[in-house]
Amino acid sequence: MTSQKYSLQDIRLRLNELDDQLLQLLSERRKLSIEVAKSKVETAKPVRDADREQQLLVKLINNGKEKYQLDAPYITKVFYTIIEDSVLLQQNYLQNLANPVHRKPTSRVAFLGAKGSYSHLATREYFSRKNVELIEMNSEQFKDVTKSVESGHADYGVLPIENTSSGSINEVYDLLQRTTLHIVGELTLPIEHCLLATQDISLEDIRVLYSHPQPLQQCSEFLGYMRHVTLESCISTADAMQKVKEMNRHDIVAIGNASSGKLYGLQPIKTNIANQTENYTRFIIVARKPVEVSLQIPAKTTLIMATSQEAGALVSTLHVLQKLGINMTKLESRPVMGNPWEEMFYVDLAAHLASAEMQKALEELTRLTKFLKVLGCYPIENVKPTQVEQY
């Protein structure tokens, strides 16, 4: 008896049916995640349960191997994405309950550059879970973003603050020193730099390259081999792509994201050009008023402080955090505007502002510093993968 053979068309039709079933199941699972969040409101349980997630993954890995011949890395990768989505959905549900006054049908959001810039991509990614209609407001400079929010023309501003390759974005840190705005959220976005052109050309033909200064810095090693190319800075990667499109010359390229390049009719001629393969930018979201963060959600608190010029002044403040068991995830120093040789310290702490430990820390830090200000307490939206044994 010969086995039945299926045509390519039959196989594709069956794949389409399975994909549709997967979408339906994912939708049902999402709805159940919201029901879980509702039950956690009543029981006051935290959003994440590491033991439960670990048990779930181990069970799925074992069942996948024994019943369906699926390997552990594949199952882990798929369900990490599902768990991450579930956690963020539940966090968003609890945040909406904690901030009913902040819930609006539309949100006006200011960001650097035009459509297709990395700040624009981050804006869409962050607000995709907020169930609001987005009104996008592009800005030419970082200070224009903060001014739009401070004046009330925008509800939120999205600002890049640090990159894994090029480090801190000092201009944004300096703006935080002067602004009255509060940090209300954060997002970490993978950055995938490539060379974009109007047509397929060789690297030897390139004479001018446009981009924002940050990507130029993040791709410095690759650009070091292109000594025949003139580098031109733009206000954003989107502006660089727009210039290449308008000039329409075979010897001009831009650095940007491949998907954004399509908006301007550009094609990638060289991908993965960043100094680091794992290239990420952390963005902060700012608003005129702070947000209330549910105690069931992992939170981060950001503050700025100025210490005295005495020896060991900064160390004394760090000892306070160590004593109270508060994890510091970022420490950045910047000059105090108008006070030569004085430093302002920006500190990110993995702690909820309302926690007993954080309140005690603020009390002691106020006594030890010349100046102290909380810039914001906001949900940690970087969901770390659940750890399981190697299979």
Automatic annotation (TrEMBL):
GO terms for molecular function: chorismate mutase activity; prephenate dehydratase activity. Keywords: Amino-acid biosynthesis, Aromatic amino acid biosynthesis, Coiled coil, Cytoplasm, Isomerase, Lyase, Multifunctional enzyme, Phenylalanine biosynthesis. GO terms for biological process: chorismate metabolic process; L-phenylalanine biosynthetic process. It comes from the Bacteria. It is found in: Cytoplasm. The record marks T281 as: Essential for prephenate dehydratase activity. CDD domains: ACT_CM-PDT, PBP2_Ct-PDT_like. Residues 8-35 form a coiled coil. Its EC number is 4.2.1.51, 5.4.99.5. It catalyses: chorismate = prephenate; prephenate + H(+) = 3-phenylpyruvate + CO2 + H2O. Residues 302-379 form the ACT domain. It holds the Pfam family PDT. InterPro entries: ACT-like_dom_sf, ACT_dom, Chor_mutase/pphenate_deHydtase, Chorismate_II_sf, CM_dom_sf, CM_II_prokaryot, CM_P_1, Preph_deHydtase. Pathway: Amino-acid biosynthesis; L-phenylalanine biosynthesis; phenylpyruvate from prephenate: step 1/1; Metabolic intermediate biosynthesis; prephenate biosynthesis; prephenate from chorismate: step 1/1. Residues 108-288 form the Prephenate dehydratase domain. GO terms for cellular component: cytoplasm. Substrate binds at R12, R29, K40, D49, E53, S86, Q90. Residues 2-94 form the Chorismate mutase domain. NCBIfam families: CM_P_1 (TIGR01797), PRK11898.1 (NF008865). Catalyzes the Claisen rearrangement of chorismate to prephenate and the decarboxylation/dehydration of prephenate to phenylpyruvate. This is Bifunctional chorismate mutase/prephenate dehydratase.
